[in-house]
Specification:
binds zinc ion; about 55% helix; mainly alpha; single chain
Length: about 140
Amino acid sequence: MNAPYATNGGVSNCAYCGYDLRGTPIGGKCPECGNLVNFRAAPIYQSNGNAVASLVLGIVSIVGCMGYGIVSIICGPLAIYFGGKAKKAIQAGYADPNSQGMANAGRVCGIIGTCLGAVGMLVLLFYVVLMIVAVASAGAAGP
Ligand SMILES: [Zn+2]
């Protein structure tokens, strides 16, 4: 999609007075000198909270694989979700491109965490089955 603002070769200052025109749309007037803005100033990036959320959830999903992966199976997919949202926001021009690395790291951590969580759940399932078998056989062998 087209963001309402773009760059003028990285320059976002008024050609006449040097005023910072970030956030001023094309065809608008420079708030300082009143000249018409005839280029697209660099966008004001929103801080990419999705990238931060993705990274934090991704790390938690890996660290949280202890305890049979219950934490991982919840946080991992969320990290992937927020990582994807963060990337979309960057591509749409709304979020800081510098947060791309963080979003990627969050997604990768989320994928690893989800896998660890899945393994943890299988281990938990194995124990539950083992317990049921043990209880059942103990009952059968009882006096
Ligand atoms: Zn100006």
